[in-house]
């Protein structure tokens, strides 16, 4: 990615805190039947559980749209997962403590390949009914069916997320998608917002669907066309053998890293025919010493090569960048500018002044290559 976001503290984190409490203080100690007393360590959550228990809802007889479904889902999920934890062996519980921690320590998973997350598939291989209970709960936590949309939790979708987004965009006001640098991200002058992406896909990994260190606003193209459910930390997660899960493990950029490297982007053209430039005429080199693997992961997940090359070949981008130098000189001549090479230098500098404006990070490199290959001179 071109740059990273600044993580912000927000009330929305209390939802993950409830989930952490359930895991560390309730489910891990599962023994016998669940009752409200097991929630004594978190009086707020206990109160919510008891209030939800008073809502009259029976899934067997409930009519469509009947109130109480979310309350029922929340309480019954806590109980079901508790019952499943009561059945698993102690050694596996100990293992799960580490794995739960890793699944939520996104920065560590991005930067240390010896740390392995746990996937639904792995839990399923060992305890299918535990996986089913966890999946049924966690897969619904972020979205329209989430029990966190209830008033008791502050209304996740209607209130907490819009409020978080506004605070987030106040501190992160570039209004450019950091994952591609190509498309805008809607800031606070818009009445709509861009979606949050689960960086480690929520369909693959349990326990982190409400962790905002795993959630980041992303442009629609990055989120819904390129990344989809691709996993930044595994080259091909579909091929992962649960017994050899270190296979294909890959380092990745962490969206909230506080020391993200400056990437060096170089464009090489193997054709001088700018008007008919094709992606295969472009070699793109993206470098940063010591971050080679992170760059590979980024290019893979977000289709970076394809998208940057397409921009360079675009009639209204790459060709236009080029024309603005050549045609611009003809206009500049009328104003007394006579030295073409100085004019080119001026335009290169201008293109790279703001890397996030008008694709400056790519445009400046593209024009530099046009200069170095002598393509301007042939057209001037
Ligand atoms: Zn993007």
Question: What is the rounded distance between the termini?
Answer: 35 Å
Cα-atom radius of gyration: 26 Å
Q: Please describe the biggest sheet, giving its number of strands, its sense, and whether it closes into a barrel.
A: 2 strands, antiparallel
Overall geometric form? elongated
**Helix-strand category:** mainly alpha
What is the helix content?
40-55%
Strand order of the largest sheet: 1-2
Name the average pLDDT: 95
Number of helices: 15
Regions with pLDDT < 50 over 5+ consecutive residues?
Answer: none
Number of separate structural domains:
2
**What is bound: which ligands?**
zinc ion
Note the run of SSEs as H and E: HHHHHHHHEEHEEHHHHHH
Number of strands: 4
Strand content: under 5%
Molecular structure report:
This is HNH endonuclease. With 380 residues, the protein is mostly helical. It has helices spanning 13-26, 43-53, 69-85, 90-104, 106-111, 120-126, 128-138, 156-171, 220-227, 292-302, 304-313, 318-334, 340-352, 360-372, 375-379, and strands at residues 196-198, 215-217, 264-269, 282-287. It has a two-stranded antiparallel sheet. A two-stranded antiparallel sheet has the order 3-4. The longest helix is centred in the first third of the chain and has 17 residues, at 69-85. Zinc ion is lined by residues 177, 179-180, 183, 218-219, 221-222.
């Amino acid at each position: 990615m071109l740059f990273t976001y600044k993580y912000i503290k927000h009330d929305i984190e209390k939802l993950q805190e409830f989930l952490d409490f359930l895991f560390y203080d309730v489910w891990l100690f599962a023994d016998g039947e669940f009752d409200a007393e097991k929630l004594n360590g978190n009086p707020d959550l206990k109160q919510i559980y008891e209030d939800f228990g008073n809502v009259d809802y029976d899934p067997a007889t409930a009519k469509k749209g009947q109130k109480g479904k979310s309350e029922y889902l929340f309480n019954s999920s806590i109980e079901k997962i508790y019952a499943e934890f009561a059945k698993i062996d102690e050694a596996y519980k100990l293992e799960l403590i580490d794995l739960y921690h890793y699944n939520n320590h996104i920065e560590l998973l991005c930067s240390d390949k010896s740390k392995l997350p746990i996937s639904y598939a792995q839990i399923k291989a060992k305890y299918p009914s535990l996986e089913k209970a966890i999946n049924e709960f966690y897969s619904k936590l972020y979205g329209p069916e989430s029990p966190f949309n209830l008033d008791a939790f502050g209304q996740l979708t209607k209130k907490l997320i819009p409020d978080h987004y506004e605070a987030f965009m106040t501190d992160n006001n570039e209004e450019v998608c950091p994952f591609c640098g190509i498309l805008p991200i809607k800031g606070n002058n818009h009445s709509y917002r861009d979606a949050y992406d689960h960086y480690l896909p929520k369909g693959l990994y349990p326990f982190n669907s409400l962790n905002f260190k795993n959630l980041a606003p992303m442009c629609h193209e990055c989120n819904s066309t390129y990344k989809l459910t691709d996993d930044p930390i595994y080259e091909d997660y579909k091929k992962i053998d649960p017994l050899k899960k270190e296979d294909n493990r890959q380092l990745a950029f962490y969206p909230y890293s506080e020391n993200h490297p400056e990437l060096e982007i170089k464009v090489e053209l193997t054709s001088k025919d700018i008007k008919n430039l094709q992606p295969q005429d472009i070699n793109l080199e993206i470098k940063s010493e010591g971050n080679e693997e992170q760059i590979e992961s980024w290019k893979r997940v977000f289709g970076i090569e394809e998208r940057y090359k397409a921009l360079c070949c675009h009639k209204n981008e790459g060709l236009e960048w080029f024309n603005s130098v050549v045609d611009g000189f003809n206009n500049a001549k009328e104003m007394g500018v006579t030295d073409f090479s100085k004019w080119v230098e001026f335009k290169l500098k201008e293109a790279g002044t703001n890397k996030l404006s008008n694709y400056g990070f790519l445009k400046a490199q593209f024009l530099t290559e046009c200069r170095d290959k002598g393509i301007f001179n042939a057209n001037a």
